[in-house]
Amino acid sequence: MRLRRCNGKSVLGGSVLLAAVAIAIGVSAQEVTNFSALVDEASRSKGVFAERHRRLLEERYDLSDRPVPGVTMSRGKPVQGGVRVKLPEGVTWEDLAALKPNQIRERNLWPAGFYPLPHPHHEVGGMVFPKQQIEELRRQTGRDLTRFDLDFDLPDHFLPEFPPPMYLTTRPDLGDVSRGQLVTLNNYYELFHEILNPKQLEGLRLLVTPFPQQQFNATLDRRSLEPHAGVACFDCHANGHTNAATHTVGDIRPNAHRRRIDTPSLRGVNVQRLFGSQRALKTVEDFTEFEQRAAYFDGDPVAAQRKGVNILERGSQVHFMAEFQAILDFPPAPKLNVFGRLDPELATPQELRGEALFFGKARCSVCHPAPYYTDNSMHDLKVERFYQPRMINGRMASADGPIKTFPLRGIKDSPPYLHDGRLLTLEDTVEFFNLVLELKLSPDEKADLVAFLRCL
Which of 72, 83, 128, 273 could form a Cys-Cys staple with 376, CB 3.0–4.6 A? Predict the structure, then answer.
C-alpha cells in the first residue's frame, strides 16, 4: 500500500494518527499497512522500551518489598517504608540539604528519582493499567485492558491496596460500602441500590460504564487486540479512589513536555475547589465533562469523533455523575479530632512531634492546612532550580509550573506520590520537600513528620 500526500503530510489510508504512531514506535509509516502489521511492530518494539524504562527505574529507586512493621492501609495492605530514591555517589541527604539549589544544579547532584518520571513509553503515552485492575475487570466483565504495546511499570507493593475501600459521606455508619469488591457495571446495582438515591445511582452507573478512549476503542489504531467498548472513569479511579493507573496529560504540547499522570484519588472531592492537576477547572461537573475529551482523547476532538466520543449531557448525566462523586469520603482517621488535629490522648509522642513540625518548622501547613490538608490553590515549587533541563526517555525534564494542592487526608492509602508518581514512599516525599523548601530537617525530625502523615 502506497503513501499519499494530504495537506503536505504523509498519511496511510487517510490516518495521520496511524502514521504518527508508527514513527513513535520506531518504524516507518511505509511499514504499517494494516492493524496486524501495527500489532506486530509494536509487539516487537515493546521489549526494547520496557527494558529502557526498567533500567531507568532501577537506576533511580530501591524497588525491594520492605513494608513498615505494623503500618497498613485502610483494608490492611502493608505500607512501604524507607527512602527509595538513590543518591548520587559520594553524597548524603545531609550533604545535599547543606547546599543551595544552584550548587546542586551546577554539580549535577539532584537525585535521579527527583526528576520528573516519564510514562513507561513516553513517546506513545496513553492509559496504562496495573495488572490487578486488568485481571479483575476481565474476570467480572470480560473486558480486557491489556495493551499489546506496553505494560504498567511500578511493582504492586508500591501501589494502593486493591480493591480499595469506598466510604460515603452520606452513610459513614456503613464503613466500606464496596464490601471488599471492585465496583463495576456488573455489581454496582446490587451493592448500592438500597443506599443511594436514584440520581446518585445513575451517576454511579455512568462512572462504571465504559466509553471509547484513545487506546481502547473499535478503530484500527487502538492498543487492544480486540475491538473495545472502552474505559470507565472507575477503571482508573477504582472504587472512587485510585489504582495508580498512569497516562500523560492531554493539555500540554509538544509531547516531550507532557507530564505523566498519577491518577489522583476522588475521595473528598466535596471539599475541593480546583480540579485537574494544572487546568484549575472550577467544578467537579467541569472536570467530569471535559475528561471525556482531555484524558480520554488527549485533547484531540478529531480523534474523539472518529473513535466514538461519548458526549455527556450536562443537565442530567454530568450532574448525576458529579453528585455521586461529591459523596465520596476520606477513610477514617481515628487519631484526628473534629478539627483535623491529633487527639493527644490517642497519638504517640512521635506523632505529636511530627504534627508540631508539620504546622511549624516544616511549613507543610502553608499549603496543606487542617482539617482536610489542602488550601484549594495552586503552587509552583520551581524544582527546576535544582537541575539543568534534560531529556529522559522521551520526557523533557524542565519546569513543571503551578500544580494543584492535593488533600493529604488518607495519604498513606495513595502511593506513589507527587503529581507524576515520582516519589514511591512518604519518606521519599519528606526528603524531596526538605530539599525543595530548604528546611534542613534532622533525620529524627523527618521520621517524626512521616509518623504524623500516616495518621491523616
Answer: 273
Please name the CATH architecture into which domain 64-115+333-456 falls: Orthogonal Bundle (1.10)
In this structure, what DSSP letter does residue 397 have? E
Closest by CA position to 387, among listed 39, 150, 101, 64: 101
Say if pTM beats, i.e. exceeds, 0.90.
yes
- Residue 105: φ, ψ to 5°: -65, -45
> What distances in angstroms separate CA 407 from CA 116, 239, 240, one per listed residue?
21, 18, 15
Domain residue ranges in the chain? 4-57, 64-115+333-456, 121-332
- 424 grid coordinates: 514511591
Please write the tens of the pLDDT for every residue from 239-282: 999 999 999 998 899 999 999 999 999 999 999 999 988 888 89
User: Which DSSP category does 180 fall into?
Assistant: T
Q: Tell me the CA end-to-end span of the chain in Å, nearest whole number.
A: 60
Is 219 buried (19+), middle (13-18) or exposed (0-12) by CB count in 10 A?
middle
CB atoms under 10 Å from CB of 277, counted, come to: 20
